[in-house]
Amino acid sequence: MLTLLALYANEHWMTRTLRIDAASHPADLVKAVNDSIDGGLSEGRLERRGNGWILHCEIRPGYEWPFCDLQVRLAELGRGVDLTQFDSVRLWVRASGPEPVQHVRVFLRHFDPAYSNSGKEADMKPHEVVFAPSAESVPVEFRLAQFMVASWWVQEHPLPVHLLGPQLDNTVLLSLTTSGLVTPGAHKIELDAIEFVGVWVDPATFRLAIIAVWFACMGAFLFWDWRRSRLRLGRTLRHKRELQQANARLVVRSGEYEAKAHHDPLTGVSNRLGLKHDLNLLMRAQEEQMFPLAVVFADIDHFKSINDSLGHDAGDEVLKQFAQHLKANIQREDLLARWGGEEFVLLMPLTRAEEAVAVAERLRLMLTEQAWSGGIKVTASFGVAQATRHSEGEAGIEAAMRAADQAMYKAKREGRNRVECNFKDLGKEA
Ligand SMILES: Nc1nc2c(ncn2[C@@H]2O[C@H](COP(=O)(O)OP(=O)(O)OP(=O)(O)O)[C@@H](O)[C@H]2O)c(=O)[nH]1
After folding, report:
1. What is the predicted ipTM?
2. So where are the chain's domains?
3. How far is the CA of 204 from the CAs of 141, 199, 394, in angstroms?
4. What global pTM score does this model have?
């Protein structure tokens, strides 16, 4: 829209105008001239009417080319107007006379010291157009490029080649003249105003400038867009980094919560949930290398009396020590968990019940040999069972655990500080 507006403004508003009429132009610079200067008999008289002039002209035979002239001097001699800064001239002209179609010649006379030094108007180079005012609308507009140097003048004024063409940078005179082949009689030329019109900036140059502005705007836009995208990308990357960091923190935190959920806070070994979780992982990863799976239940003997005699804190300390001793004396692949209270469970993959009984026996002995805080003696009762390959997955393991628990109670009944093994309640041979 701006471009269209600028193009319109260039053509219609960004113009320079030089207007000449009787109201603004000094009266002594306008006069009527006739062929008497060449020995003719025609008579011209100038009348001012309103803001214009009227040339009354009586053409009489007597000179070979009779004429009358309405001469408007644009400036003093030698100080002409530079018409090259204008594109066209508008004339408010009417003409009447005895001819069927009345013609008028328009001359722009140029002063150049190379041929005009005599100061005579006849020695100023005439640029000419001829037209019939009645055939044109008023005002009639000529492009200055339409004015041609009059050939008859060039014949009378031989000039070097470089001076033959049109020259309008020092124009001193505009004249309206009766036509060359004029009919004798009363002629009249009315001139209301003259207007030279030009644009400040030549349209071609202006369009080039607009294209340049477009390119500059596009470049500026691309640069701005590139910077905006970079900033946006930076923000996105920052946001992504923050999300990754938050995510990493969440992963760590959820790992911590999971560890807490799977471990007994007092002894640090797995709780029931942790044992189930670890067992599931093992079953998924290496079910084939799990069986036979030995299950050992260990329960501290007379733990209530430890609590009662030494206090609950001492009881806690015994529980911690008990768990550490068990943990330190089993293999890495064995799973140890606190089943509840003072009861612990041990799962031993690829271990037969007989081997597990031996391990339980070793653990039982080991516990009796430990130095316990408070100088007390701590013993435990063990129950052993086994889940075979024939047992169906978790159901088999749960059955083995029940059997081991019962064996442990049997050990309690049989006097404590002993190991009992239960095959019977599994219903299958190891
Ligand atoms: N200090 C402490 N005591 C606990 C904890 N959990 C359970 N107990 C106690 O452990 C005792 C278990 O007593 P009982 O079930 O009678 O068994 P017991 O005294 O060991 O006797 P037997 O198992 O038959 O040898 C109870 O007094 C519980 O309060 C614990 O986390 N810390």
Report:
1. 0.97
2. 11-200, 202-262, 265-426
3. 21, 11, 93
4. 0.53
